[in-house]
Specification:
The protein is mainly β. It contains no helices and ten strands. The protein has strands at about 5, 10-15, 20-25, 35-40, 45-50, 60, 70-75, 80-85, 90-100, 110-114.
């Protein structure tokens, strides 16, 4: 297993921004794709974004395209999710996942107020 720790969540007004971080202790991070998922209360976990090992390729769910940006810093074994223009559909627990491992981090809660 890999240890994943998400942080940066919080309460923000609609239209606001947050930057989430996903830190891992595994050196294999530098060769792994990193995924962000989210799970809203009472809903299934859904894909948000993915970035490949080098950072050259990214992909997003349609619901966040143009508002969220995924990035990574391989020197710090950390991935980031910049979330702008948050809306009332975005509140959830956000998790990251590293390719090659099945486990998830505990997540970080994002809450958006109107």
């Amino acid at each position: 297993q890999v240890q994943l720790v998400e942080s940066g969540g919080g309460l923000v007004q609609a239209g606001g921004s947050l930057r989430l971080s996903c830190a891992t202790s595994v050196r294999a991070f530098r060769r792994a794709d990193i995924y962000w998922y989210r799970q809203a209360l009472g809903k299934e976990r859904e894909f948000v974004a993915v970035i490949n090992w080098s950072g050259s390729t990214t992909s997003y769910a349609d619901s966040v395209k143009g508002r969220f940006t995924i990035s990574r810093d391989n020197a710090k074994n950390t991935s980031y999710l910049q979330m702008n223009n948050l809306n009332l559909e975005d509140p959830a627990i956000y998790h990251c996942k590293q390719s090659g491992y099945d486990n998830w981090g505990p997540g970080t809660q994002v809450t958006v107020s109107s």
